[in-house]
Amino acid sequence: MSGAVVAPAPLTGPQKRPWRVRTREARFATMLLIPSVVVVFGIVLYPILRTLYTSFFDVESALPGDFPFVGLENYGKIIGDGAVWSAVGRTAYFTFFSTALEIGLGIGLAVLLNAPLRLRWLFRAIVVLPWALPTIVNAQMWRFILNSEYGALNALLTQLHIIDTYQSWLGSPFLALNMVALADVWKNTPLVAFFLLAGLQTIPSDLHEAAVVDGASVWQRFWRITMPLLKSSILVVLVLRTIEAFKVFDIIYVMTRGGPANGTQSIAYFTYVRAFSDQNFGYGSALSYLIVIVILVLAVFYIRALRSTTANEI
Amino acid sequence: MAAARRDGMAMRPDHNHNLTMSRRGFLTAAMGVGAGAALAACGSGSGGSGAKVTIRALHQQQAGYSASDIQGMTAAFMKANPNIKVENTLVAYDALHDKIVAAAPAGTYDVVLMDCIWPAEFAKKHIVADISAKVKGLSGLDGIFPGAIETAQYQGKYYGMPWLLDTKYLFYNTEMLQKAGIKPDQLATWDGVKAAAQTLKAKNIVQYPITGSWQQAEAVICDYAALVGAFGGRFLDDAGKPAFTSGGGVQALQFMVDLVKSGLANPAARTSVEDDVVKTFSQGNAAMALNWTFMYGLANDPKQSKIAGKVGMAHTPAGPGGKAPGVNGASALAITSGSQHQDAAWEYVKYLTSKAVQDKFATSSLPIWKASYDDPAVQKAGTPAVVAVAKTQLQDMILRPQVANYNSASQQLQVSIQKALLGQETPQAALAEAANAFTASS
Amino acid sequence: MSALTPSRRYRVFVHLMAVVVSVLILAPFGWLVIASIANDNDLLSKPLHWIPQHPTFDRYLQIFTAQGDNVFAGFRAGLLNSVIVASVTVLVSTVVGVFGAYAFARLRFRGRRAVLLFFLSTYMVPPIALVIPMYLVMVQLHLLDTTLGLIVVYSSFATPFVLWIMGNYFQTIPVELEEAARIDGCSRLGALFRVILPLARPGLLAMMLFAFLIAWDEFLYALIFTSTAASKTIPVAISEFTGRYTTNFGLQAAGGVLAALPPVILAAIFQRQIVGGLSGGAVKG
After folding, report:
1. What is this structure's pTM?
2. Which chain C residues are Cβ-neighbours of B41 within 8 angstroms?
3. Segment (H or E) for C14
4. What pLDDT, on a 0 to 100 scale, did the predictor assign at position B411?
5. What is the Cα–Cα distance from A266 to A257, expressed in whole angstroms?
6. Closest to C17 (Cβ–Cβ): which among A112, A268, A299?
7. How far is Cα C209 from Cα C213, in angstroms, rounded to an integer?
8. Residues forming beta bridges with residue B189, ordered by sequence position
9. Residue B292 pLDDT more than 70?
10. N or C: which end of chain B has fewer CB within 10 A?
11. Are B420 and B430 spatial neighbours (Cβ–Cβ below 8 Å)?
12. With an 8 Å Cβ cutoff, are C140 and B62 in contact?
């Protein structure tokens, strides 16, 4: 549990420090972290603990009542519920599909945002647009565009003679899941791109210059210089997007309500219907902690995978 | 105020006083503040007798009565009851349920609008108060449509007063029917509707004669409910066990599946909610559809409709046994169990649901009172064509099943219906799956 | 500044790609703009009229001028509330988060990764599970239906990201620069403000835009915790353009276009701060 995972020890920094320096640093770190602790946990600590507490009771109403302590029974029920696991499976697919595309496209877009473009300010403003559009409007917009009766996508593809009959983009379960993921990708790729653009800024330009002198092509420079140095920024957005994607709710609520035939029902949506709409809060709280655990495992996995290869940074 | 609130809760026999304390105790410990004292400071109004009380009401935005209607009613009420101050909050329908639930432990609202699918849940979870004594004491109770009053009932007790009354009707495109030589009378039965659709399709008047709101959403249950009733089925039997897995329940779904398979119903219906039905119908891409009253106005508005003036509205078609109920879509005003001002809240509810007030605002929403429909002023305000058919349809409605876990049970049923409509499962098998969700609840 | 002179082919290629990306982004957004000024008949017709035959700015006019206590007034109030809530959230989370991020990036203490993950985990819990206990907290602290309440909640969600994002970003800034400053007599915090923060400007700006949009876009808590024009935010106001059975897509589109503008304008103003890479000179100190 050393800091090396989060912070690769700067190679130029002192590798071993006396114990006293460490405690002094720890005390200083604590001081620096106190404001964050207050702001973050001041308000959410009670709800988070309360939810954990609730997950061990058979709480069936928002109102206080005589709810039996059931220990880990709620967690047991979740593990035994096939519907939970199909929702988790769909959510995992959604998460991997959308984050992979967002990161892939985001890298390209970041390089483009950083390129010597005419009217670069305008291009950057355009790229922000999807990110700035409220999620509920984005979802409504795509529901409208993908509509099988009067949607713009069908109209466009037919007028270009790419398809000859209107398609029902949200009409079959798997296709609908992919379409919802694409709507999410459209909205969130700019977010990824802007973070990676910030990452690109930290790459010293003389590295590229030296490579040019050595005769490296654009591609070689991208793979040998840009990508390795972008890893830490990629890790940041990967964790960020994974957290968001695994909790996906709003876009599904507006676009498909989990349909057709549950094809787009995410685990957060499942939790909402079973736990909140029906007020089975004990079960719902346990489900929420399951979601937290899955995301945490993914986050730790990403951190390990990406950090282990960056020891030779700079 | 905290003490008063606790006493109020303890008075209800089914509410455990101790756990009220334990939750509060936990709260106090977790937050390190005197939670009781904090609560005392945040109650609304003063509890003393004769003093002015403030009640808070939660209404819905952009449906039924408009914001200014509600403002007008409330202002008139406050004028007549100077001791009661009413603060209204309007939220989108989609937010209503969740807001009621989230606010319940804090007792934020006294009066809430309750959709007809929530009384079982809210009663069982003690979110709303049993106001049977108050409702039964009302004079002229039998002047209310029976279908309206039952939406506020659960297991024989009253948990609210019906306020917004709505049901689905059969809408048809008069021009298309005329072109095909079909008389509107033919649409009195589902067989007639099917035959009409076949004619319309054969004559190439419209590609998909029928559409519906069959997306995985509450909307599909509403259409299915009307068909279940027409085919003589029931959602639950007298013992509260699911009864839609055989007979009318299966036939109703089979009917929907057949319509899709034969191309009589638009495949897009599977991704449509009520609003999409309005759009498809208004653009002249459907000849017939079930929908709520609001479609009449929209489909007749030339700004958003190409068939303005060609909209027919009829009683829902009958099934083989002659039954023809519309789905019950009423909403009631309920008083929360956490309300400190049950009596003041009841005064407000009584006022809003009174015949005089409802008649006055009939343009926005039709009254729950049968006699109103013979009043020429109401007929004019509510559009004569609508009132005429509403008068009979509102006598004849089917209620969706009243179970405490309605939301997730309904979702299971939606999934089953969708599986059948997508051809993944037979209606029989799909419905049997959904039945489990209803069994688990009771 | 840079000795790099990209080849002509590369320049043509990136411009071409920029055009393609712009089209992919602007096509759906453009459709949203069209939807906001077209009437329903234009939007729904088959074949589709791409150029509205009856363009109307009524929706925008309504949003900005409609009198009385209605959804339009709610939208105007929401715009102001959202600007306040998002700006203050950015301010609070950045100020407290930057110190913490520095600790994670440069100081050594036990359980550093665990602490960081613990911070992040507060955002991993689905909001739907927290909303009821959080509501009680809001009531107790008299924060229900106030912009302050939303600021407090959003700051608590944005801050872990500031820690995570800036912590990682600070690490990419060569430690030699900071050490040079400290040799010149700067304290650790002095070096943070004089050396690290100026160099971290691109990351800081991306992060601030992100925090702004977390607050700008958040829906569920705002929906449950706000009830009047005193605190309703834009997403809530837009959701109220829709009736129980109806979706007023034209109005939602107009609301969406208006809601997207403030963040885009902000980004356009500040993008100039994201110039081109650490110059070689800075690294060599």
Report:
1. 0.90
2. 142
3. helix C8-37
4. 94
5. 10
6. A112
7. 6
8. B318
9. yes
10. C
11. yes
12. no
